[in-house]
Amino acid sequence: MFNYFQLIDTKSLQEKISKGGFPFSKYLFWDAPIENIDIEKNKKYIIERVVTRGFLEDFYILTQLYSRDQIVESLKRSRELDPKTVNFCSLYFHVPKSDLNVSLFHR
């Protein structure tokens, strides 16, 4: 299987993560002040936004900050996933689609 992370500069992203602060693309969180978003307290919100709207760099950062289990658990509780995101997450994380909820808005 092809590793898409080799297409991005993971070294600079690792440096960005190690510096602390908010590492994700600012445009993803237009509806909340970045300084008020806590990486742990707002984990589900961050995971939903990154998997539904983020760039590959954001997804890489997500996989570095949170464990697979944390990401999958948040995805299983989410009510914000569209059908394409459910399909991607099911394939990437090896989770049955039936375990992921598709938002009624996107049906």
Topology:
Layout: H1 10-18, H2 43-53, H3 56-65, H4 68-77, H5 83-93
Helix pairs in contact: 1-3, 2-4
In short:
By secondary structure, this protein is an all-alpha fold. It has helices spanning 10-18, 43-53, 56-65, 68-77, 83-93.
Descriptive report:
- The chain is mainly α and 107 residues long.
- It has a domain at 38-107.
- The protein is built from five helices and no strands.
- It has helices at 10-18, 43-53, 56-65, 68-77, 83-93.
- Helix 1 packs across helix 3 (56-65) and helix 2 (43-53) packs across helix 4 (68-77).
- The model has no long low-confidence stretch (mean pLDDT 92).
- Rounded to an integer in angstroms, the radius of gyration calculated over CA atoms is 14 Å
Oligomer: single chain
Helix content: 40-55%
How large a portion of the residues is in β-strands, by DSSP E?
A: under 5%
Q: How would you sum up the major sheet?
A: none
What's the overall geometry?
A: globular
Q: How many E strands?
A: 0
Average pLDDT works out at: 92
Alpha-carbon distance between the two ends: 30 Å
Helical region count? 5
| Poorly predicted segments | none
Helix-strand string: HHHHH
SS content category: mainly alpha
